[in-house]
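Hi Prof. W.,

I finally got the Cobalamin biosynthesis protein CbiB prediction working! I wasn't sure whether to trim anything, so I left the full sequence exactly as given:
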Amino acid sequence: MPYWLENLSVYPLVLLSIWLLGSLVLLPQDYQPLTFFRIFAKQLAAKVHPDPHRATSQQLISGSLALAVVMLPTLALLAPLYWLSDWPLVLDGLLLYFCLDFVYYRQQSHKVALAVSQQQNSRAKDLLQPLVLRQTQSLSSAGLCKATIETLWLRTAKQWVGVSFWFLAGGGLAAVAYRLLLLCNQEWNDKQSHFRYFGRPASLLTQWASLPASLLTALLLAFLTDITGAFRQWRQALSLQLCLPHLLILGALASALRINLAGPVIYQQQKNQRQRLGPAQLPAVRDVLNALRLNRQFQLYSAFIVFIFSLLQLLWLLY
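And this is what came out:
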């Protein structure tokens, strides 16, 4: 029986422990191992994808091979460590800790809200730009707040719930594989004209891999806040030019905060028209703070659910 399957019952407790550790001990971004892979992905793309005008098939092939170069050697190096380690669960915990780098983004979101409240929009744009793909220089105060709220919750779904989901499903290696996939998709995002085809393999795989986490996030958020309003938003917004997981999350969030989300965004001077979602009320600083507060509550409820699940699992094993 595979190692991860033998220890499946222990994974919820490991997950809870790392959630607690990650909230108390934040690893600086300069010492985050994922920073190395981010730099490597950028340099790899510059080397194997110098010309975005090549044939589409060539770009798709090179994008697929680049994704394999980032992920497969890393997983191949990590897998033997489980055979050599006397404490494989500790290794699982370490890998999960390095993959869960979400607290940094919540801190940055709070800094953006503080800068906007002090009418320092230029500083807020500089703080927000590394977190989003969209252009921030033309954003108003409401636009900055909207972008901050959206990226906070979309990253919650993908980088916190998604990593945790794949850890429970397949252990540390599955969490690492999923996190590297997210990283490549962020660096080679196909919304950028340069990576329109080169980044498509990573984008498609990311959409499928993050789908369970996005559905869980949207449903739990709706149950915790306003499930009737969330379903109303989902039903009225089927024509939005958003992928389904983003639509579900933003619909539940717009209903919970009673604010307007989605709408047009600009990527590399190119305007992407999206319909607006939710009430007419534009986001303000207080809504960013409410989104942060709701985010913490969401994580606490998630921890409670995992704890109850692990307790029931323990009782099942005992009896």
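DSSP finds twelve helices and four strands in the chain. Does that look reasonable to you?

Thanks,
D.
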